[in-house]
Specification:
By secondary structure, the chain is mainly alpha-helical. It is built from seven helices and no strands. Keywords: Membrane, Transmembrane, Transmembrane helix.
């Protein structure tokens, strides 16, 4: 029964959003920019760590943002979206940010696994070179003479 009420509230919130509101358009543009930045900088680890921490800080402070927006909604929007429970800010602001953070984490795990495979291959190659029979000096001299004659 509670899940039905939650689904109804979730859908009622989504249906009540005025998608042409400048605030909503701004939030959507913010999410597009953040997602693009996360994708384009996937090989720049230092920047991604800063982006990741900044996004988590935004989610952490979303309750404070919701309280501010509840009190000053007329400055931000045409409609009062910000309720006491924070459903709008959680659904429209925090959830996409957390999804971006999960994608960034998955990317880091993938890169780590690829790096571990490369490292293991390099170790195996080095072990193979050490264990292969080495040429003695006389063989290397005759081989170099043979190369010169050709």
């Amino acid at each position: 029964m509670e899940t039905e009420v939650l689904e109804l509230n979730l859908w009622s919130i989504i249906e009540s959003i005025e998608w042409h509101d400048p605030l909503v358009i701004g939030i959507i543009m913010f999410h597009i920019a953040v997602t693009s930045m996360a994708i384009l900088t996937r090989n720049h680890n230092n920047f991604q760590v800063v982006l990741f921490l900044a996004l988590l800080l935004l989610v952490y402070f979303s309750e404070s943002l919701n309280e501010y927006a509840t009190n000053h909604w007329k400055l931000l929007s045409r409609q009062q979206y910000f309720d006491d429970k924070g459903m709008f800010i959680s659904l429209i602001f925090s959830a996409p940010i957390l999804l971006n953070c999960m994608v960034m984490m998955a990317s880091w795990l993938w890169q780590s696994s690829e790096l571990m495979v490369q490292l293991k291959n390099a170790q195996l190659k080095q072990i193979k070179l050490k264990s292969s029979p080495t040429l003695n000096k006389s063989d290397s001299i005759t081989n170099s003479d043979h190369i010169k004659n050709e």
